[in-house]
Amino acid sequence: MTQASITQASDTRELIVESAYACFCSQGLQKTTIVDIARSANVSRSTIYEYFSDKGAVFEACAEHASEQFYREMSKAMDLGASLEEKLSHAAVFVTQARRTIASGKYFDEHAISLLLTKDAAVLLRECVDFFAPYLTAAKLTGEVRKDLDVRAAGEWFARILFSLFSTPSSTLDMDNPDVAAEFVRAHVVRGLAGDRARPRR
Predict the structure, then answer these.
(1) Angle 93-165-24 (CA atoms, 0-180°, nearest 5)?
(2) Of 1.10.357.10, 3.30.450.20, 3.40.640.10, 3.10.150.10, which CATH number belongs to 66-194?
(3) d(C-alpha 39, C-alpha 69), whole Å
(4) Is residue 145 within 8 Å of residue 84, measured between CB atoms?
(5) Taking the CB of the first residue and of the last residue of the chain, which one, N or C, has fewer CB atoms within 10 A?
(6) pLDDT (tens digit, 9 = 90+) per residue, 119-167?
(7) Model pTM?
């Protein structure tokens, strides 16, 4: 296969995924058919089956698409912070505001987030740990967290905190308030990772 053919195949697959994503969002998973996806992508049904075995396989690709979009937007939010404390606080605010953001249509909609959350939970957790690993590793180098910090374990712990912040309302704190969510992370996450042994480099 030539490079041009590979590029064309990649473009066609991406077109199918984007078209399916739009169909799932507008019509729902159950009502969307392969015919709908083919019509939206302006390709034949046989073309779709060249790339995907069935609608379930298309759905999985769309879930991956939603996941990638989520992490892109969370990364942008974290980039607003300079320190690890600020970055993780921004991540928590982003997650706690996700439902409101979804409702506004600014980044996602409910169908998109459903696609994200229906992926295998273990896969979601691993992806989140991988996402935070570079941030935690960099913080070890700058002395923001303790030198013996287990990056993978700390990343999983924080990922589980974010999953909980997203799915479970607090009975004691107003997590819809960005200041409250940010302080929750500053007080109970970053300072706990730092302990008494970490000292920022001067």
Answers:
(1) 90
(2) 1.10.357.10
(3) 24
(4) yes
(5) C
(6) 667 788 899 999 999 999 999 999 999 889 999 999 999 999 988 888 7
(7) 0.72
